[in-house]
UniProtKB/TrEMBL annotation:
Family in the record: Belongs to the class II fructose-bisphosphate aldolase family.
Gene Ontology terms for molecular function: fructose-bisphosphate aldolase activity; zinc ion binding
Segment forming the signal sequence: none
Name this protein carries in UniProt: Fructose-bisphosphate aldolase
Statement: the UniProt record of this protein carries the keyword Zinc: yes
Taxonomic lineage of the native organism: Eukaryota, Fungi, Dikarya, Basidiomycota, Ustilaginomycotina
């Protein structure tokens, strides 16, 4: 682990989870309601958590909103880190790092160069950014292999897109980062056929690059729409410590807004939408086993 990220909040939360055998909800937040809903639910459950922002949200609402998210999460009664998910273009990555240099620093960032044609290109593109982020004290997540999904019609994982443990080892050594998002049969967006995860590959990744190995990496699970509770539990048991969740909390919030806007007063609508979001977060704290784990030293 690079010296500059030794006290990094995302890593402190995830290392404690890894040692304790539980998972951490990394929840996508799109607005003030969702950020505050996540914080309220985490405080209620006495659970650590990670608030995730997409680059589009940072661009949309700007540096002052991002500053608010960081301040609100860091002021919570439980440890809540702020992470940027899927920063994949120069513009998106530069924005995060430039703002950090201006004093608005998130705790961690996913530098996602997995769309490049080869692993070599992936590494070459990601490396300078990984170094710059690490210098700023940010933890870095990278993706190796390629997750399908996100585009209509692309829903099948080909064998070649799965993450190879030996490649992961080289990749992590080259980039010197702590968080790995592998491709194990997970898909972004809706699963057309029931999810079929290569849990054996997850075991192999854990033993090749996971905690206690030279890479000492922490595994991140993407593509969690539609997963059954059982599969979530299996993944946590196999060392997925950061579990990215998007639509499970976003959809109830959006549905609430759709049903109540124009009928109820705006403050009441916001309260209701925030409560829907918080309810979904609470379920995951229980499912991932992170309730009452807010004291990271335990
Ligand atoms: Zn993802």
């Amino acid at each position: 682990m690079p010296e500059s990220t030794k006290n990094n909040l995302t890593l402190r939360i995830l290392r404690a989870a890894s040692n304790g055998g539980y998972g951490i909800l990394a929840q996508s937040c799109y607005d003030t309601q969702s950020v505050l809903g996540l914080i309220e639910a985490a405080e209620e459950a006495k659970s650590p958590a990670i608030a995730q922002l997409f680059p589009v949200t940072m661009q949309q609402f700007g540096i002052h909103f991002t500053s608010f998210v960081i301040q609100a999460c860091h002021a919570a009664k439980v440890p809540i880190a702020v992470h940027v998910d899927h920063a994949g273009t120069d513009e998106d990555i530069d924005r995060v790092l430039d703002w950090a240099e201006q004093g608005v620093a998130v705790d961690s960032i996913m530098i996602d160069c997995s769309h490049h044609d080869s692993d070599e290109d992936n590494i070459a593109m990601a490396k300078p950014y990984c170094q710059r982020a690490t210098k700023l004290g940010m933890a870095v997540e990278v993706e190796l292999g390629r997750l399908a999904g996100g585009e209509e019609g692309v829903r099948v994982i080909e064998e070649g897109a799965l993450t190879k443990p030996e490649k992961a080892e080289r990749f992590l050594t080259e980039l010197d980062v702590d968080l790995l998002a592998p491709s194990i049969g997970n898909i972004h967006g809706r699963y057309v056929s029931p999810p079929s995860f290569r849990l054996d590959l997850l075991d192999k990744l854990q033993s090749t690059v996971g905690p206690g190995t030279a890479s000492n990496a922490l595994i991140v699970l993407h593509g969690t729409d539609d997963l059954k509770d059982e599969l979530f539990r299996d993944c946590v048991a196999r060392g997925c410590v950061k579990i990215n969740v998007n639509s499970w909390a976003r959809n109830p919030q959006v549905e609430y807004l759709r049903d109540h806007l124009g009928k109820d007063g705006l403050p009441e609508v916001y309260d209701g939408a925030k409560a829907e979001f918080a309810r979904a977060c609470s379920r995951f704290f229980t499912l991932f086993g992170s309730v009452n784990k807010s004291n990271l030293e335990v």
